[in-house]
């Protein structure tokens, strides 16, 4: 189950595999910059990886704070951890909410019915339940697609750390124009 963190292609391969079947790399943690400059972190499900363009993508409700945060400051970090391999991947880059109608529709069509139902709720995520009447939690008003946002991150760096051996290893893969440059670092 080892992973060669020194090979950027291997890292993109395990991320791509996490979109096809559930792996520890399927769940990542997205860091954004909040309205007052504070760090904000939340879990996201990795839905798409494009090795050619060096991008990763996930779905979210368009009304969430993370969408507003990306509009103010697109700098993001996404961290993945595989406890079986004892490998951490930290991606840094620029996040954007995809506006292209065809790309949004293709992403939406790729979601399962259970995932689509998550967007069929009229209440904004993080609304206080103390302010909601019981029937306000229902869904089905048909606006699910309008509430759906597809977020793509253009990855500029992948910081890979292997903690599995006695000697830990760390490699920083940085995008330089059309290629990746790999630098071994002290873990």
Description of the structure:
This protein is α+β, with helices and mostly antiparallel strands and 187 residues long. The protein has five helices and nine strands; from the N terminus they run αββββαββαααβββ. Strands 1, 2, 3, 4, 5, 6, 7, 8 and 9 form a nine-stranded antiparallel sheet that branches. The longest helix is centred in the N-terminal third of the chain and has 13 residues, at 8-20. The model has no long low-confidence stretch (mean pLDDT 92).
What structural class do helix, strand and pairing data support?
alpha+beta
What is the 3D form?
globular
- SS elements, strand count: 9
Unreliable sequence segments: none
Largest sheet: 9 strands, antiparallel
Helix content: 10-25%
What is the distance, rounded to the nearest whole angstrom, between the alpha carbons of the first and last residues?
20 Å
Round the Cα radius of gyration to an integer and report it: 18 Å
How many alpha or pi helices? 5
Q: Helix-strand pattern, N to C?
A: HEEEEHEEHHHEEE
